[in-house]
Amino acid sequence: MKPHKQIKDWGLGLTTPLIIAGPCSAETPEQIEQICKEMKEENMVPQLFRAGIWKPRTRPGSFEGVGEEGLKWMEIVRHQLNIPITTEVGNAAHVESALKHKVDVLWIGARTTVNPFAVQEIAEALRGVDIPVMIKNPMNPDLELWMGALERMYAVGIDKLAAIHRGFSDAYDKRYRNKPNWSMPIHLKREWTGMEVINDPSHIVGRRDGLLEVAQSAMNFGLDGLMIETHHNPDKAWSDAKQQVTPKRLKEIILSIDFKTPLENMKPDERLQDLRRAVDHLDDQLLDILQERFAVIDQIGNHKREHHLTVFQSDRWKEVMESRTQKGVKKHLSEKFMKELLYCIHEESVKRQEKQLREAEPVKK
Ligand code: PEP
Ligand code: MN
What we know:
Keywords: Transferase
Order of helices and strands: EHEHEHEHHEHEHEHHEHHHH
Low-confidence stretches: none
EC number: 5.4.99.5
Helix content: 40-55%
Domain Chorismate mutase: 266-357
Structural class: alpha/beta
Oligomer: single chain
Distance between the termini: 60 Å
Shape: elongated
Number of helices: 13
Protein name: chorismate mutase
Number of strands: 8
Pfam families: CM_2, DAHP_synth_1
Strand content: 5-15%
Bound molecules: phosphoenolpyruvate, manganese (II) ion
Largest sheet: 8 strands, parallel, barrel
Protein backbone atom coordinates (compact mmCIF):
# COMPACT_ATOMS: atom_id res chain seq x y z
CA MET A 1 0.00 0.00 0.00
CA LYS A 2 1.48 3.37 -0.92
CA PRO A 3 1.75 5.73 2.01
CA HIS A 4 -0.94 8.35 2.54
CA LYS A 5 -0.01 12.04 2.66
CA GLN A 6 0.64 13.45 6.09
CA ILE A 7 -0.69 16.81 7.28
CA LYS A 8 2.46 18.69 6.27
CA ASP A 9 2.00 17.43 2.70
CA TRP A 10 -1.64 18.48 2.28
CA GLY A 11 -0.51 21.62 0.47
CA LEU A 12 -2.21 23.92 2.97
CA GLY A 13 0.88 25.02 4.88
CA LEU A 14 -0.15 23.03 7.95
CA THR A 15 2.33 21.56 10.44
CA THR A 16 2.08 19.37 13.52
CA PRO A 17 1.11 19.72 16.28
CA LEU A 18 -1.88 20.95 14.31
CA ILE A 19 -4.15 23.33 16.19
CA ILE A 20 -7.75 23.41 14.98
CA ALA A 21 -10.21 25.78 16.66
CA GLY A 22 -13.57 27.37 16.00
CA PRO A 23 -17.14 27.01 17.17
CA CYS A 24 -19.06 23.76 17.48
CA SER A 25 -21.58 25.29 15.04
CA ALA A 26 -21.62 28.26 12.74
CA GLU A 27 -24.58 30.31 14.03
CA THR A 28 -24.57 33.74 12.36
CA PRO A 29 -22.11 35.78 10.28
CA GLU A 30 -21.68 38.07 13.29
CA GLN A 31 -20.70 35.12 15.49
CA ILE A 32 -18.03 33.94 13.03
CA GLU A 33 -16.76 37.49 12.67
CA GLN A 34 -16.54 38.03 16.43
CA ILE A 35 -14.70 34.75 17.03
CA CYS A 36 -12.18 35.61 14.29
CA LYS A 37 -11.77 39.11 15.70
CA GLU A 38 -11.02 37.81 19.21
CA MET A 39 -8.65 35.14 17.91
CA LYS A 40 -6.74 37.85 16.14
CA GLU A 41 -6.75 40.20 19.15
CA GLU A 42 -5.50 37.41 21.40
CA ASN A 43 -2.89 36.49 18.85
CA MET A 44 -4.34 32.99 19.00
CA VAL A 45 -5.05 32.24 15.36
CA PRO A 46 -5.33 28.47 14.85
CA GLN A 47 -3.89 26.76 11.78
CA LEU A 48 -7.28 25.48 10.69
CA PHE A 49 -10.72 26.96 11.50
CA ARG A 50 -13.54 24.53 12.29
CA ALA A 51 -17.29 25.10 12.32
CA GLY A 52 -20.17 22.65 12.05
CA ILE A 53 -22.72 23.54 9.39
CA TRP A 54 -24.84 20.39 9.55
CA LYS A 55 -25.09 19.16 13.13
CA PRO A 56 -25.81 15.50 13.80
CA ARG A 57 -27.80 15.77 17.03
CA THR A 58 -28.49 12.77 19.19
CA ARG A 59 -32.14 13.74 19.60
CA PRO A 60 -34.40 15.78 17.33
CA GLY A 61 -35.45 19.23 18.38
CA SER A 62 -31.93 20.55 19.09
CA PHE A 63 -30.26 23.02 16.77
CA GLU A 64 -29.40 21.09 13.61
CA GLY A 65 -27.08 23.57 11.97
CA VAL A 66 -27.58 26.52 9.65
CA GLY A 67 -26.92 24.51 6.48
CA GLU A 68 -25.22 25.59 3.28
CA GLU A 69 -25.71 29.29 3.97
CA GLY A 70 -23.16 29.00 6.77
CA LEU A 71 -20.47 28.05 4.28
CA LYS A 72 -20.74 31.51 2.74
CA TRP A 73 -19.90 33.00 6.13
CA MET A 74 -16.66 31.05 6.14
CA GLU A 75 -15.41 33.63 3.65
CA ILE A 76 -15.12 35.88 6.70
CA VAL A 77 -12.52 33.50 8.12
CA ARG A 78 -10.44 33.61 4.98
CA HIS A 79 -10.72 37.37 4.88
CA GLN A 80 -9.93 38.02 8.55
CA LEU A 81 -7.53 35.22 9.42
CA ASN A 82 -6.33 33.92 6.07
CA ILE A 83 -6.40 30.30 7.21
CA PRO A 84 -8.03 27.20 5.73
CA ILE A 85 -11.41 25.98 6.99
CA THR A 86 -12.90 22.61 7.82
CA THR A 87 -16.44 21.34 8.33
CA GLU A 88 -18.25 18.06 8.97
CA VAL A 89 -19.95 16.18 6.15
CA GLY A 90 -22.44 13.40 6.78
CA ASN A 91 -23.72 12.55 3.29
CA ALA A 92 -23.11 13.09 -0.44
CA ALA A 93 -25.21 16.29 -0.54
CA HIS A 94 -23.05 17.83 2.21
CA VAL A 95 -19.93 16.91 0.23
CA GLU A 96 -21.31 18.53 -2.90
CA SER A 97 -22.08 21.78 -1.15
CA ALA A 98 -18.80 21.83 0.81
CA LEU A 99 -16.87 21.37 -2.45
CA LYS A 100 -18.92 24.10 -4.13
CA HIS A 101 -17.92 26.49 -1.36
CA LYS A 102 -14.27 25.42 -1.50
CA VAL A 103 -13.99 24.09 2.04
CA ASP A 104 -10.32 23.12 2.42
CA VAL A 105 -10.58 20.05 4.65
CA LEU A 106 -13.56 17.79 5.43
CA TRP A 107 -14.18 15.76 8.53
CA ILE A 108 -16.48 12.83 9.15
CA GLY A 109 -18.21 12.84 12.53
CA ALA A 110 -18.39 10.07 15.12
CA ARG A 111 -22.05 9.34 14.38
CA THR A 112 -21.23 8.85 10.69
CA THR A 113 -18.07 6.76 11.13
CA VAL A 114 -20.19 4.03 12.76
CA ASN A 115 -22.17 3.59 9.54
CA PRO A 116 -20.32 2.01 6.59
CA PHE A 117 -23.21 2.86 4.20
CA ALA A 118 -22.89 6.56 5.01
CA VAL A 119 -19.09 6.47 4.88
CA GLN A 120 -19.19 4.73 1.50
CA GLU A 121 -21.70 7.28 0.17
CA ILE A 122 -19.31 10.06 1.17
CA ALA A 123 -16.37 8.19 -0.33
CA GLU A 124 -18.20 7.81 -3.67
CA ALA A 125 -19.00 11.53 -3.69
CA LEU A 126 -15.28 12.19 -3.20
CA ARG A 127 -13.99 9.79 -5.87
CA GLY A 128 -11.35 11.65 -7.88
CA VAL A 129 -11.46 14.77 -5.67
CA ASP A 130 -8.22 15.98 -4.13
CA ILE A 131 -9.18 17.11 -0.61
CA PRO A 132 -7.93 16.12 2.85
CA VAL A 133 -10.37 14.16 5.00
CA MET A 134 -10.19 13.65 8.77
CA ILE A 135 -12.10 10.76 10.30
CA LYS A 136 -13.39 11.02 13.85
CA ASN A 137 -13.43 7.80 15.83
CA PRO A 138 -16.79 6.00 15.90
CA MET A 139 -19.01 6.44 18.98
CA ASN A 140 -18.11 2.93 20.17
CA PRO A 141 -14.52 1.81 20.80
CA ASP A 142 -14.20 -0.21 17.60
CA LEU A 143 -10.83 0.19 15.92
CA GLU A 144 -12.00 -1.75 12.85
CA LEU A 145 -14.77 0.75 12.10
CA TRP A 146 -12.35 3.64 12.48
CA MET A 147 -9.80 2.00 10.19
CA GLY A 148 -12.57 0.93 7.83
CA ALA A 149 -13.69 4.53 7.28
CA LEU A 150 -10.10 5.60 6.58
CA GLU A 151 -9.71 2.69 4.16
CA ARG A 152 -12.94 3.59 2.34
CA MET A 153 -11.57 7.09 1.72
CA TYR A 154 -8.19 5.77 0.67
CA ALA A 155 -9.82 3.32 -1.74
CA VAL A 156 -11.46 6.14 -3.75
CA GLY A 157 -8.19 8.04 -4.02
CA ILE A 158 -8.29 10.32 -0.98
CA ASP A 159 -4.70 10.10 0.15
CA LYS A 160 -4.62 13.18 2.42
CA LEU A 161 -5.87 11.54 5.57
CA ALA A 162 -5.82 12.04 9.33
CA ALA A 163 -7.85 10.74 12.25
CA ILE A 164 -9.52 12.59 15.12
CA HIS A 165 -9.74 11.06 18.58
CA ARG A 166 -12.92 12.41 20.23
CA GLY A 167 -13.52 9.64 22.77
CA PHE A 168 -16.11 6.89 23.05
CA SER A 169 -19.53 6.88 24.63
CA ASP A 170 -19.84 4.79 27.77
CA ALA A 171 -23.12 3.98 29.46
CA TYR A 172 -21.66 3.87 32.96
CA ASP A 173 -18.54 5.98 33.23
CA LYS A 174 -19.73 9.54 33.49
CA ARG A 175 -16.39 11.16 34.34
CA TYR A 176 -16.14 12.09 30.68
CA ARG A 177 -18.72 12.95 28.05
CA ASN A 178 -16.83 10.45 25.91
CA LYS A 179 -14.23 8.22 27.50
CA PRO A 180 -10.76 8.67 25.96
CA ASN A 181 -9.70 4.97 25.87
CA TRP A 182 -6.17 6.03 25.00
CA SER A 183 -5.22 2.58 23.76
CA MET A 184 -7.50 3.11 20.70
CA PRO A 185 -5.66 6.04 19.07
CA ILE A 186 -2.35 4.42 19.98
CA HIS A 187 -3.44 1.17 18.34
CA LEU A 188 -4.53 3.07 15.25
CA LYS A 189 -1.10 4.66 15.00
CA ARG A 190 0.49 1.24 15.35
CA GLU A 191 -1.75 -0.39 12.77
CA TRP A 192 -1.49 2.34 10.15
CA THR A 193 2.08 3.58 9.90
CA GLY A 194 2.31 7.35 9.84
CA MET A 195 -1.39 7.96 10.53
CA GLU A 196 -1.65 11.22 12.44
CA VAL A 197 -4.28 11.51 15.14
CA ILE A 198 -5.66 14.85 16.31
CA ASN A 199 -7.12 14.87 19.81
CA ASP A 200 -10.48 16.58 20.43
CA PRO A 201 -10.55 17.20 24.18
CA SER A 202 -13.78 19.26 23.89
CA HIS A 203 -15.93 16.25 23.01
CA ILE A 204 -14.02 13.97 25.39
CA VAL A 205 -14.43 16.16 28.47
CA GLY A 206 -17.75 17.82 27.61
CA ARG A 207 -16.97 20.65 30.02
CA ARG A 208 -14.64 23.63 30.02
CA ASP A 209 -12.57 22.40 32.97
CA GLY A 210 -10.39 19.40 32.32
CA LEU A 211 -9.61 20.31 28.70
CA LEU A 212 -6.02 21.11 29.53
CA GLU A 213 -5.44 17.81 31.31
CA VAL A 214 -6.77 15.74 28.41
CA ALA A 215 -4.94 17.86 25.83
CA GLN A 216 -1.69 17.39 27.75
CA SER A 217 -2.24 13.64 27.96
CA ALA A 218 -2.82 13.58 24.21
CA MET A 219 0.51 15.30 23.63
CA ASN A 220 2.21 13.00 26.13
CA PHE A 221 0.88 9.96 24.26
CA GLY A 222 2.34 11.38 21.07
CA LEU A 223 -0.85 12.48 19.27
CA ASP A 224 -0.43 15.04 16.55
CA GLY A 225 -2.61 18.01 17.32
CA LEU A 226 -5.71 19.37 19.02
CA MET A 227 -9.19 20.37 17.93
CA ILE A 228 -10.73 22.69 20.54
CA GLU A 229 -14.21 24.18 20.25
CA THR A 230 -13.95 27.94 20.59
CA HIS A 231 -16.73 30.55 20.81
CA HIS A 232 -16.76 34.23 21.76
CA ASN A 233 -19.68 33.66 24.14
CA PRO A 234 -19.63 29.96 25.03
CA ASP A 235 -22.55 30.07 27.48
CA LYS A 236 -24.80 31.35 24.71
CA ALA A 237 -23.59 28.88 22.05
CA TRP A 238 -26.37 27.11 20.14
CA SER A 239 -24.71 23.72 20.58
CA ASP A 240 -22.20 22.23 23.06
CA ALA A 241 -22.33 25.39 25.21
CA LYS A 242 -20.78 23.69 28.25
CA GLN A 243 -17.57 22.67 26.55
CA GLN A 244 -16.64 25.65 24.38
CA VAL A 245 -13.99 28.14 25.48
CA THR A 246 -13.27 31.73 24.54
CA PRO A 247 -10.30 32.55 22.30
CA LYS A 248 -8.67 34.01 25.43
CA ARG A 249 -9.03 30.74 27.32
CA LEU A 250 -7.91 28.82 24.25
CA LYS A 251 -4.70 30.79 24.30
CA GLU A 252 -4.16 30.04 28.01
CA ILE A 253 -4.68 26.34 27.37
CA ILE A 254 -2.35 26.23 24.37
CA LEU A 255 0.34 28.18 26.22
CA SER A 256 0.13 25.82 29.21
CA ILE A 257 0.62 22.67 27.18
CA ASP A 258 4.04 21.13 27.01
CA PHE A 259 4.16 20.24 23.31
CA LYS A 260 7.83 19.64 23.06
CA THR A 261 8.31 16.62 25.26
CA PRO A 262 8.42 13.38 23.36
CA LEU A 263 7.34 10.39 25.46
CA GLU A 264 10.92 9.33 26.22
CA ASN A 265 11.87 12.70 27.70
CA MET A 266 8.72 13.26 29.71
CA LYS A 267 8.94 14.01 33.45
CA PRO A 268 8.93 10.59 35.12
CA ASP A 269 5.76 11.09 37.18
CA GLU A 270 3.80 12.51 34.24
CA ARG A 271 4.80 9.62 32.04
CA LEU A 272 4.03 7.14 34.78
CA GLN A 273 0.55 8.64 35.24
CA ASP A 274 -0.24 8.28 31.56
CA LEU A 275 1.10 4.77 31.35
CA ARG A 276 -0.95 3.84 34.42
CA ARG A 277 -4.05 5.23 32.79
CA ALA A 278 -3.34 3.02 29.78
CA VAL A 279 -2.91 0.00 32.08
CA ASP A 280 -6.18 0.80 33.89
CA HIS A 281 -7.95 0.81 30.58
CA LEU A 282 -6.39 -2.43 29.43
CA ASP A 283 -7.35 -4.07 32.72
CA ASP A 284 -10.95 -2.96 32.20
CA GLN A 285 -10.84 -4.63 28.81
CA LEU A 286 -9.34 -7.77 30.30
CA LEU A 287 -12.17 -7.96 32.84
CA ASP A 288 -14.79 -7.43 30.14
CA ILE A 289 -13.32 -10.29 28.14
CA LEU A 290 -13.21 -12.58 31.19
CA GLN A 291 -16.83 -11.73 31.95
CA GLU A 292 -17.80 -12.64 28.39
CA ARG A 293 -15.77 -15.83 28.51
CA PHE A 294 -17.46 -16.99 31.69
CA ALA A 295 -20.88 -16.20 30.24
CA VAL A 296 -20.11 -18.59 27.37
CA ILE A 297 -18.73 -21.16 29.85
CA ASP A 298 -22.08 -20.99 31.69
CA GLN A 299 -23.92 -21.73 28.43
CA ILE A 300 -21.65 -24.70 27.81
CA GLY A 301 -22.37 -25.83 31.37
CA ASN A 302 -26.07 -25.74 30.66
CA HIS A 303 -25.63 -27.75 27.51
CA LYS A 304 -23.58 -30.38 29.36
CA ARG A 305 -26.24 -30.61 32.03
CA GLU A 306 -29.00 -31.09 29.49
CA HIS A 307 -27.03 -33.79 27.71
CA HIS A 308 -25.79 -35.54 30.84
CA LEU A 309 -22.14 -34.88 30.07
CA THR A 310 -19.37 -34.58 32.62
CA VAL A 311 -18.08 -31.12 33.42
CA PHE A 312 -14.44 -32.03 32.93
CA GLN A 313 -13.45 -33.50 29.58
CA SER A 314 -9.79 -34.31 29.45
CA ASP A 315 -9.29 -34.29 25.66
CA ARG A 316 -10.72 -30.82 25.32
CA TRP A 317 -8.70 -29.55 28.29
CA LYS A 318 -5.48 -30.92 26.83
CA GLU A 319 -6.17 -29.25 23.50
CA VAL A 320 -7.03 -25.90 25.12
CA MET A 321 -3.95 -26.02 27.29
CA GLU A 322 -1.57 -26.87 24.44
CA SER A 323 -2.91 -24.54 21.79
CA ARG A 324 -3.21 -21.51 24.12
CA THR A 325 0.24 -22.06 25.61
CA GLN A 326 1.74 -22.20 22.12
CA LYS A 327 -0.06 -19.01 21.12
CA GLY A 328 1.03 -17.30 24.32
CA VAL A 329 4.65 -18.27 23.83
CA LYS A 330 4.51 -16.80 20.32
CA LYS A 331 3.34 -13.56 21.94
CA HIS A 332 6.39 -13.64 24.25
CA LEU A 333 4.51 -14.80 27.34
CA SER A 334 6.38 -17.46 29.31
CA GLU A 335 5.20 -21.06 29.24
CA LYS A 336 4.99 -21.13 33.03
CA PHE A 337 2.82 -18.01 33.10
CA MET A 338 0.53 -19.38 30.38
CA LYS A 339 0.06 -22.67 32.21
CA GLU A 340 -0.70 -20.98 35.53
CA LEU A 341 -3.11 -18.57 33.88
CA LEU A 342 -4.93 -21.34 32.03
CA TYR A 343 -5.14 -23.55 35.13
CA CYS A 344 -6.63 -20.68 37.04
CA ILE A 345 -9.22 -19.86 34.38
CA HIS A 346 -10.05 -23.51 33.81
CA GLU A 347 -10.45 -24.22 37.50
CA GLU A 348 -12.92 -21.38 37.82
CA SER A 349 -14.82 -22.58 34.72
CA VAL A 350 -15.12 -26.12 36.05
CA LYS A 351 -16.24 -24.85 39.47
CA ARG A 352 -18.95 -22.71 37.89
CA GLN A 353 -20.26 -25.55 35.78
CA GLU A 354 -20.20 -27.96 38.68
CA LYS A 355 -22.14 -25.45 40.80
CA GLN A 356 -24.65 -25.12 37.96
CA LEU A 357 -25.10 -28.90 37.97
CA ARG A 358 -25.56 -29.02 41.72
CA GLU A 359 -28.04 -26.19 41.86
CA ALA A 360 -30.11 -26.89 38.77
CA GLU A 361 -33.29 -28.90 38.68
CA PRO A 362 -32.46 -32.42 37.57
CA VAL A 363 -33.08 -32.98 33.86
CA LYS A 364 -35.31 -35.97 33.16
CA LYS A 365 -33.71 -38.79 31.18
C1 PEP B 1 -18.42 18.22 16.47
O1 PEP B 1 -17.22 18.19 16.19
O2 PEP B 1 -19.04 19.25 16.75
C2 PEP B 1 -19.15 16.92 16.52
C3 PEP B 1 -20.42 16.81 16.24
O3 PEP B 1 -18.32 15.96 16.91
P1 PEP B 1 -18.51 14.36 17.09
O4 PEP B 1 -18.77 13.81 15.73
O5 PEP B 1 -17.17 14.01 17.64
O6 PEP B 1 -19.62 14.14 18.07
MN1 MN C 1 -19.57 20.00 19.12
